[in-house]
Write a structure and sequence with these properties.
alpha+beta, Aminopeptidase, six-stranded mixed beta sheet, 6 strands, about 35% helix, globular
């Protein structure tokens, strides 16, 4: 757990089911995708198993006990070299808590976790029109323009 001024960054573990649900609800609000994040929530056992996995990193930014932001990342084992990369899958800050350094602190904690594991890089994606995210990520890393394709399972 790290403290960054008026908020605390905490890595979630198996005993943090309620906090994981609060992070998920905050993602739903921040992304305006409430049904995706809270419409069919997994049971407690699923969340406990997820949070127990070594390759899953879930961080919560807490301010006065309230989820102000969150980050969900996967540690990916590479095959071409004996190394890992950390992919930040979701990162959001609740609207009322934005522009206070929370997103940067979540990324910095992820970098610390990645470094402790000996990971090669941390990477993240965003939509081109998410100007605030593009600006922040541009300050922290090197931009690579790629194309993303969702390939349906049930064609």
């Amino acid at each position: 757990m790290s403290n960054s001024g008026s908020f605390t960054i905490r890595r979630l573990g198996t005993g943090d089911i309620a906090l994981m649900r609060a992070v998920s609800a905050m993602f739903g609000e921040a992304f305006e995708e409430r049904d995706t994040y809270t419409g069919r929530p997994p049971d407690d056992g699923y969340l406990a198993r997820l949070l127990a996995r070594d390759h899953v990193v879930v961080l919560a930014a807490l301010q006065d006990g309230v989820v102000a932001g969150g980050l969900f990342a996967y540690v990916l084992a590479k095959f071409e070299q004996a190394r890992e990369e950390v992919f930040i899958y979701d990162l959001a800050v609740a609207e009322a808590h934005r522009r206070r350094g929370i997103a940067r602190a979540l990324i910095e904690e992820t970098r610390r976790i990645a470094a402790a594991r000996g990971a090669h890089v941390v990477f993240i994606q965003t939509e081109p029109d998410n100007h605030a995210a593009v600006a922040l990520y541009s300050k922290l890393g090197v931009r690579e323009d790629t194309l993303h394709f969702d390939i349906p399972i049930d064609q």
